[in-house]
Amino acid sequence: MAVKKNIGAEIALYPTPLVLCGTYDAEGKANLATLAWVGVCCGKPPAVQVSLQRPRHTFSSIMEKGEFTVNIPSSSLVVEADYCGMASGRNQDKFDVSGLTSRRGEFVDAPIVEECPICMECKVIHTLEIGTHVMFVGEILASWVNEDCLAPDGIPDPSLVSPLLFTPLRRNYHAIGDLVGGAFNIGKKLLGR
To answer: What DSSP line would sit under 127-146, residue for residue?
Structure first.
């Protein structure tokens, strides 16, 4: 059995998804923030959460508009995604510099990133102040998926989406790995023991 070592109260949730959060600021300028503090938080209504620090430009945009998009970049967009996490939308047009294409959402007042294989339009339904970050829970009003990333059953295929993953303690990006088993299936052999 492996020996475990306590490394302290660290964010050791490995890996986390990486997304580009799209907003329009008070002047109507499209902006992106690279976020790794994100996740699914409800099935009905379908909802995701994004967490931001108060000083971030995207924070004030979400507070003002109450809407945002969650765009999942493929691993081929690692340079653009990393840039969008380092620059501030207060003084740079991230769409212009990165070469990414902004398209206005159809259900919310926030931009979709055309190059991202999955884009979700979200309306804020809850806000939770936690500490250094504020969590915004967004009800998903629409999910757009590139047709070439859909499996024959109409569900996104992660190997075709090729999402970026982030490791918080190492601060690195990774690509998705191999399929290791079917959820709610592979464990059936242990049921009833």
So the answer is: EEE-SSEEEEEEEEEEEEE-
Q: In this structure, which topology does domain 16-178 adopt according to CATH?
A: Pnp Oxidase; Chain A (2.30.110)
Chain centroid offset of residue 77 CA = 14
Question: pTM of this prediction?
Answer: 0.95
User: For residue 13, what are the contacts with CB-CB under 8 A and spacing of at least 6?
Assistant: 168
b/e map of 40-54 (b: 16 or more CB within 10 Å)? eeeeeeebbbbbbee
First to last CA, the chain: 22
What is the three-class DSSP state of 179? coil
Model confidence pLDDT, tens digit, residues 46-69: 999 999 999 999 999 999 999 999
